[in-house]
Design a protein that fits this description.
Blueprint (H helix, E strand, L loop, with lengths): L7 H13 L19 H18 L6 H4 L3 H31 L9 H31 L5 H48 L19 H5 L3 E6 L6 E5 L4 E4 L3 H8 L4 E5 L2 E4 L3 E7 L2 E6 L7 E3 L2 H19 L1
Antiparallel strand pairs: 1-2, 1-5, 2-3, 4-5, 6-7, 7-8
Length: 322
């Protein structure tokens, strides 16, 4: 039986849409307090070059090999690339703001519908008018105002289509990353339930309860910290070789473990002092030789950390002799 007044096929479509826009982790769980990183500083420049070149080339019937050798090509492609780069950066910026202020999963109404309308306005319509303004100025500078109506008729629909596709790509990436972050958030919540509450929390500790710092809790079990391949997670490697995931970036982890027992020898590696069996110096280079869980492996200390590492190592040796 279909649920009145919707036929069966409309109910199926509605259930499918609800699955697309469901809150990661389920309705009864709080929203994931993590922001998706779109890596626009890495992805936008090559995409802008590709889109800018395509927009210039597709409307000409001149062979690309001949066209690329002409001065007119570079006069047209440079503002096209610049416009594409600015537009994509604006879209990512507005999308990140909307992710925090108007998430996709905040209720069926006005959640995704309101977010879709705002995404269309800020991610498609506004950039399209921005691109139109840039090229109108470009045509006026070149004394070709007659090309503006032609641009609106022939090029603007393609630009709107490309903008919609870019927004759709951002949405798909956001959904995929939020599902991953949701699983990490669940693991993290399970861990903190087993530990004592933080001192910043409103809950007070019982009399006589001592809070052990994180660095002291892991000094005898964790040998290495490495990136987990994700922007917001760190891989913990124990002395026994077992691996675990810490749902925090390495910068945040190192801020807690930095001290007598741990040092970040490279941007991608934090080492426990007990995991180092030897420090070798070759000219201006400093290498550390690891024990468990990677016996015999040599890791070169980065040059900008070398001085601090040697001071840290000597301090540890001095403490051991006391």
């Amino acid at each position: 039986m279909s649920r009145w007044p919707f036929p069966d096929y409309l109910n199926r479509i509605r259930r499918s849409l609800r699955k697309l826009f469901r809150q990661p982790g389920g309705r009864k769980k709080p929203p994931v307090p993590l922001v998706v990183d779109y890596y626009e500083h890495l992805l936008v420049p090559p995409l802008a070059v590709f889109v800018g070149v395509v927009m210039v080339v597709y409307g000409h019937h001149i062979p690309f090999g001949h066209f690329i050798r002409s001065v007119d090509f570079y006069k047209a492609v440079l503002p096209s690339i610049a416009s594409a780069w600015v537009v994509m950066r604006l879209i990512v910026r507005d999308t990140r703001l909307l992710d925090g202020n108007c998430p996709w999963w905040r209720g069926w109404w006005p959640g995704p519908f309101r977010r879709t309308l705002m995404q269309l306005c800020l991610g498609v319509i506004k950039p399209a008018f921005f691109s139109l303004g840039i090229f109108s100025i470009y045509f006026l500078v070149r004394s070709r105002p007659d090309l503006i109506p032609r641009y609106i008729i022939e090029d603007l629909p393609l630009i709107i289509l490309l903008l919609a596709g870019f927004n759709l790509l951002c949405w798909a990436y956001h959904q995929a990353r939020m599902n991953e972050l949701s699983s990490q958030w669940t693991i993290w919540m399970r861990r903190i339930r087993k530990n004592l509450p933080n001192q910043d929390d409103d809950t007070a500790l019982l009399p006589g309860v001592e809070v052990i710092p994180y660095s002291e809790r892991v000094r005898d079990s964790i040998a290495l910290y490495e990136p987990d391949g994700q922007h917001d997670a760190t891989l913990c490697i124990g002395f026994d070789g077992k691996k675990d995931m810490e749902p925090r970036p390495m910068k945040e982890v190192y801020s807690e473990v930095a001290g007598l027992h741990f040092f970040q020898v490279r941007r991608e590696l934090i080492v426990n002092r007990d995991a180092i069996i030897e420090v070798q110096r070759e000219g201006d280079d400093v290498d550390v030789v690891l024990s468990k869980p990677r016996p015999g492996i040599q890791v070169r200390v980065s040059k900008r950390r070398k001085k601090d590492f040697l001071a840290w190592w000597e301090d540890g040796q001095h403490e051991a002799r006391k």
